[in-house]
């Protein structure tokens, strides 16, 4: 395998009950040199069976499937293949689904209507352990967050350096480490170190948490 031109191919399990949707999604994914669909399923139960027999890095699951929804499959997959990343594919721009998907362990939520634009980026983000959400989903999370803040969840006191604050603001606005490095004239490594420090200092887990914190601290507009 070490002679493979692309040793870091992301192996994908694709589950959707519509064969046409599967074919379309597969075309989008297989066009990319680092993405490969290695298993397909027509429902959640089949997806779990496939995950047992195939080495997969990432599962792209339709939320609404017969027999076993994508949400149920996501929870089950975490048990069958710990470490497998999960993306939800959905027709619905629906807040309820979004929160359930995140609770079920999905690291991204992609609308089918813009899959040709968003799906590849979402797959790569998932493999980097970065959340991927379409803009409407971010708005929903922020709204939910602000409601919780209003109900008395207080912002921790200021403990960031001005540079960390700049990095935090840019992360919250959705810029990549590379873009932040260019904007601040520092190396990508330095940006990543700042991100790590921010997460550590603020006791947060990921970019979503950072974004919520930045909004709460008044660094970015909700």
What integer value in Å does the Rg equal? Answer: 19 Å
Instruction: Give a short account of the largest sheet.
Output: 6 strands, parallel
Look at the helices and sheets and give the structural class: alpha/beta
Our estimate of the beta-strand percent is 5-15%
Q: How helical, in percent, are the residues?
A: 40-55%
CATH topology of the largest domain: Rossmann fold
The CATH level-2 architecture of the largest domain is identified as 3-Layer(aba) Sandwich
* CA-CA gap between termini: 47 Å
What overall geometry do the principal axes of the alpha carbons give?
globular
Biggest sheet strand order reads: 2-1-3-4-5-6
Uncertain residue segments = 1-5
Question: CATH H level of the largest domain: which superfamily?
Answer: Response regulator
Q: Return the CATH class of the largest domain.
A: Alpha Beta
SSE ordering: EHEHEHEHEHEHHHHH
